[in-house]
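Database export, one record per block. Field names are fixed; values are copied verbatim from the stored entry.
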Amino acid sequence: MAATVLLAATVGQLLLATLAPDLPQFFGKAFGARLIAYPLLMLAVPTVWTLATRLRGGGAAVPWDGCAVLMVPFLVDVTGNTLDLYDRVWWWDDANHAVNWLLLGIGAGLLLRPARVRPRWALGVLVAGIGALLAVGWELAEWATFIRHGTELSTAYTDTLGDLALGTLGAAVAGVVVATRRDP
């Protein structure tokens, strides 16, 4: 199952980063917190989906395709740090925010598919809005965990504004993709 592979690859790299914090690409980037937060976030949707389904008395299966797409950005983020792409490739952080929020939006769209939101443009706006909220939440978490007391505070404002803009753009593109995609 793709979700299991994504989770294992992410946790494996998080363990490496936590056990080798002196490597420059991991230093000061809150990998101890990520080791706890990322797996919990990656498992949140399937867990809530399962609990909600049981409470309703239904047998709706977890939409693993949507869950897997939601898990990819966590792996991309950790892999970018493991390979030191954030410091070695000047555009990596920007591309990461745009593409990861595109993926989060597509994942949200896959999860919302059974709801049959109409009209289709409303689904697109919903996906874009969810993505924008996730971008704000992500930036708040970055600030709380490693920016406010770290070495990146002097450039944080400009970086955060750019990250929010690119994350929202990625989510908006996902909204357009989801809204214009034909139902299977």
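Remark 1: The CA atoms of residues 29 and 146 lie 6 Å apart.
Remark 2: The chain is about 75% helix and 0% strand.
End of record.
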